[in-house]
Every structure is written in structure tokens, then in C-alpha cells.
Amino acid sequence: MFATGIENSAPKTGGGRTRRDQLAECGHYDRWREDFALVRDIGCTYLRYGPQFHLTMLGAGHYDWSFADEAFAALNRQGTVPIVDLCHFGLPDWLGDFQNPEFPELFAQYAMAFACRFPWVQLYTPVNEMFITAVFSAKYGWWNEEAKDDRSYVTAIKNIVRANVLAMRAILKVRPDALFIQSESTEHFHAECPDAMHHAEFRNAERFLTLDLNYGHRVDSAMYEFLLDNGMTRDEYHFFLSQNLRRHCIMGNDWYATNEHLIHANGQSRWAGEVFGYAPVTRLYHDRYHLPIMHTETNCDEGPNGDEAERWLWKQWAGLMHLRQEGIPVLGFTWYSLTDQIDWDVALREKRGVVNPRGLFDLDRKPRAVGHAYARLIKNWKGVLTSHDSCLQPTLAAAS
């Protein structure tokens, strides 16, 4: 599945005063027809995309589908398969933030309403990057509730993953053959010195929390104590263990140069750059969950010479192909996103209006070097993988 995505992050920042709607900031609302044409022309048949949660769900049972109706009809007509992203880092104003215990059930209602309105859609990412959503909102204090304490963090985790699980169950009532691609940040933590080893071990267990709960995989003992010490009840934990949705799931792995971290003796961390790289870290996730994989996000600034992003693309592709040659079922690749983004160099925390040159196209919708490179990659490899790869069909058949 060769894919791209239209960046639709929408967290709130600045004490809840500022909504960072990337569809608006990157011009999609005015140029969505043009954007869809670019997806088709570059050769992508899959698109990570969704209606904005905060603009669509106006209240419990009250929805405004006007933009979604027009946009999804256009995608359907042109034959682009959407991987529908229903919650990308932010909630409607009336729902507040991820500390709200009513969020999971209300989000499941929203997911079912979408599935009923668009029954032809099969592929979903109900909650994008559950781990990053919780970390940035309730551990680092950057978005939404802007909390920095363990209890808020655990509350965010359990509400976010419960929302994802309930949304999957709701969608399956409408579309029993639905498939769910958990686009999740793939992380690794390295110890800088011996005194940092226990911090690195803790963080390397913590990175699995959202997927462990989502897939009903038992967390390790340190994580179990951490969850229960910070507000998760045994009944809540056993709710996650009782779910049986794995056969509908594809594990999506997102990978950036910032996904490996160096941990210091005091527990603080900083980005380490690429140490292991995509393939070795993704293998750790596959060894844990034994699910088919899709590379669901990557990008890189084009760099001072304009070719860094192109080199990054080929490096990611090489890692993906290496996994496939080892027999790991990797079903797709995604450059994210279609166009450049705004202020992601500061994780949307400050509204500076800085254009991050990470898209296949710039904000004038002119192709970047990596856009040309991705089009070539798709053209060269699409027929080969479709005609000669026998691992895809059994995996998808078993999932559905």
C-alpha cells in the first residue's frame, strides 16, 4: 500500500486558547480538490486522511458532515482508498481534553456515525499515535490538558486507548470486515551511562503501553505497578486484556530521526538521531505483537542542499525491504505528508508560521525533489510487489 497523508493535527495549545488546525494552516480547506489530484498523480492509491473531529462532532449525537460528504465522495470517485483518521491529537472544545472520562464512549458514537455515513470505507486509524497524544498532552505538558504528572498521564493513556478500542468495536458493528491500522510512534531509548540504564529500561517498557493495552498484551510488572499506582484500576486493566480485536489490526509504525532518545543518569532525555534505525526497532515491535506491519509515517526536511529528504526516503525504503526479506509481513509505506507543514519544528507549541519543508509538495503545491523521488519509487516497485509478493493476500484474508 503506497500512501501519503494530508496533515490534520489539531491539538490545542497555550492553555487551551489556540487551536492548531493543520488543515487550515496548510491551506487544505481551500485547495482540497487540488490536493486530491496530487495524491492521484503521484501514484498513491492510499491516503491517510480524516474529517476534523473538532469541527464535525458538535455535541453528543450532533454532527456536521458537510465537508466530509464532499471530500470523501471525491476520493471515492477518483479511486483513492482512505485510511480514515478520526482523532489526530485534539478534541472538540466541548469535550475538553483527554482527562475527560466521557471521551471514550462519545468518540465511539462518533466513529459509528462516520461508519454508517460512509459504509464503503474499510480502513481506519481511530486515534492517531496514541502514545504521542498521551505523552505530549499529559507528560510533557505541551498540548491539550498540558499536564506533567504521572496520574494525568495514566488517565490520558487509559482514556485514549479505551476510545480507540470502543471505536473499533463500534465500526465493526457497521463494517464487520473493517481493518484498523494503528499508526503509532516507534521509539527506542538508549542509556548514556550505567546510572541511566534503569531509566532506559523503564522508558523502553513504557513505549509499549498504548499498544499493549490496545492489543490485550500483558504489560510487564514495572508498568503494571506504574499504571495501578497512578489511578488505573484492576477492572480497567482487565477490560483491555479481554479485548479480542487483533485479527482486525495492522500495526502501523511511524519513524523519524527524533524517535531514538539518549537517557541521562538523571532520567532526562534528548534526541539521539538514528542509532539503530527503522528496521531494528520495528523488529522489536513485531517480535512483541506478531502482527502485519505498515510504515505509516516518515518525513525529513529537504536540507540545505535540497536532497536530504530524498536520501531519507531511500533509507526508509531500504529498511522496509530488509524487514520483508526477513519474512516480516510489511504491507505498506507512507511519506507523511503530502504538503509541507507549519511549526512542527516546535511540535506546534508556538504559533510562528514557520514552514517545515517536509512534504512531497510545497505549500504552493509545487513538487519537491522527494515528491519526484517517491513517484519514481512507486512506479518502479508497485507492479513488482503486487505481482510477486505472496505474503499480502493471506495476511489480509486472515485479518478480514
Task: Summarize the helices and strands and which ones pair or pack.
Elements: E1 2-5, E2 12-13, E3 18-19, H1 22-25, H2 28-42, E4 46-49, H3 53-56, E5 57-59, E6 62-63, H4 66-78, E7 81-87, H5 103-117, E8 123-127, H6 130-138, H7 150-174, E9 179-185, E10 188-191, H8 197-206, H9 209-215, H10 221-229, H11 234-241, E11 249-254, E12 260-263, E13 269-271, H12 278-289, E14 293-297, H13 308-325, E15 330-336, E16 341-342, E17 355-356, H14 369-388, H15 392-399
Parallel strand pairs: 1-4, 1-15, 4-7, 7-8, 8-9, 9-11, 10-12, 11-14, 14-15
Antiparallel strand pairs: 2-3, 5-6, 12-13, 16-17
Helix pairs in contact: 2-4, 5-7, 6-7, 7-9, 13-14
CATH class: Alpha Beta
Domain count: 1
Briefly note the CATH topology name: TIM Barrel
Structural Rg: 20 Å
Mean pLDDT across residues? 95
Which class do the helix and strand fractions yield?
A: alpha/beta
| Total count of strands | 17
CATH homologous group name: Glycosidases
Strand content: 15-25%
Q: Give me the side-by-side strand order of the main sheet.
A: 1-4-7-8-9-11-14-15
Second CATH tier, the architecture: Alpha-Beta Barrel
Keywords: Hydrolase
InterPro entries: GH (IPR017853), Glyco_hydro_1 (IPR001360), Glycosyl_Hydrolase_39 (IPR051923)
Biased composition (Polar residues): 1-11
Region (Disordered): 1-20
